[in-house]
Design a protein that fits this description.
Elements (H helix, E strand, L loop, with lengths): L6 H13 L12 E10 L5 E9 L4 E8 L6 E3 L6 E6 L5 E5 L2 E7 L1 E10 L6 E12 L3 E12 L5 H12 L3 E2 L6 E7 L4 E8 L5 E7 L10 E5 L5 E9 L9 E8 L2 E8 L3
Parallel strand pairs: 11-18
Antiparallel strand pairs: 1-2, 2-8, 3-7, 3-9, 4-9, 5-8, 6-7, 9-10, 12-13, 13-16, 14-17, 15-16, 17-18
Length: 269
């Protein structure tokens, strides 16, 4: 891969390109295609939809946290009609190694489920999406994809099936302590080392810790498997933001062989 920069550096570099005459941060590409698909309608009128992305062989795109390098996806719905809010969910990604470290990606295709809340539940929603994302093979490129549908509640069995299959792979939110135990932080000032253990039925594949945008959180490294079968993970050189707020909330996602879960907790709490 040619991106050997941090997420924050990449985003800053993208804005610099956008400000340069004759250059654009994101461009049209042929390596990926996007289409919006329709699911059903919930009792309160919320529409279920999906962002279906297909990638050419050998290409990949990033999860919401790209890992050691990469650009997270962005979603702009402002051109939509009768849309109050849209919430995008992310199925479990693969964790793979490349020249910049380890990254969290999708390959071949992925469906990102969407819950679209209407302003007026009695009317259809016109969903118009402008999506920015990173695409990688041997090189990496920032890209922009667009999609549009009129969601009136009618859908095809094939599209509904794809959304349901994707929803099964979205991590479930569980109470703190369900899958993550022995949470301990050491160090002072803006730097921290975090140790924790994870357990899930049928085993844990990998884990991710996310915090405020200003924090720099490397991917956890599996240190050992403990006597009770739990996996021991460590994050070194976790750096807090300008406020050095060690009590900020973090989200811990544990990816298992038979499903994934998310827990919310305080870094030092």
């Amino acid at each position: 891969m040619t991106w050997l920069l941090s997420r924050r550096t990449l985003i800053a570099a993208g804005f610099a390109l956008a400000a340069s005459p004759g250059l654009a941060q994101f461009g049209r590409v042929t390596q990926a295609r996007l289409r919006l698909i329709k699911g059903g309608i919930e009792p309160d009128g919320t529409r279920v939809a999906g962002i279906h992305i297909t990638l050419q062989p050998g290409w990949k795109t990033y999860w919401r946290h790209p890992g050691d390098s990469g650009i997270p996806p962005g979603f702009d719905w402002k051109r939509s009609e009768n849309l109050k809010s849209a919430e995008v969910s992310f199925p479990a990604p693969e964790r793979v190694r490349d020249g910049a470290g380890e990254i969290l990606v999708y390959r071949r295709e992925v469906v990102l489920p969407v819950r679209a809340v209407p302003i007026d539940p009695t009317r259809p929603i016109v969903l118009r999406l402008d999506m920015t994302l990173g695409l990688c093979e041997q090189i990496c490129i920032p890209a922009e994809l667009q999609g549009e549908i009129v969601h009136d509640g009618r859908s095809t069995p094939a599209d509904v099936t794809m959304i349901l299959q994707s929803l099964v792979r979205v991590p479930r939110i569980v109470p703190a302590g369900t899958a993550v135990t022995q949470w301990r932080t050491t160090g002072g000032g803006p730097a921290r080392t975090v140790d924790f253990a994870t357990t899930l039925p049928l085993g844990v594949l990998h884990a991710v810790v996310e915090g405020p945008e200003s924090w720099q959180i490397p991917l956890p490294v599996r240190i050992a498997t403990l006597a009770d079968g739990a996996d021991h993970w460590r994050i070194e050189r976790l750096r807090l933001g300008p406020a050095n707020d060690a009590y900020g909330a973090v989200r811990v996602t544990v990816f298992g062989r038979n499903g994934s879960v998310e827990e919310l907790r305080r870094l030092d709490g």
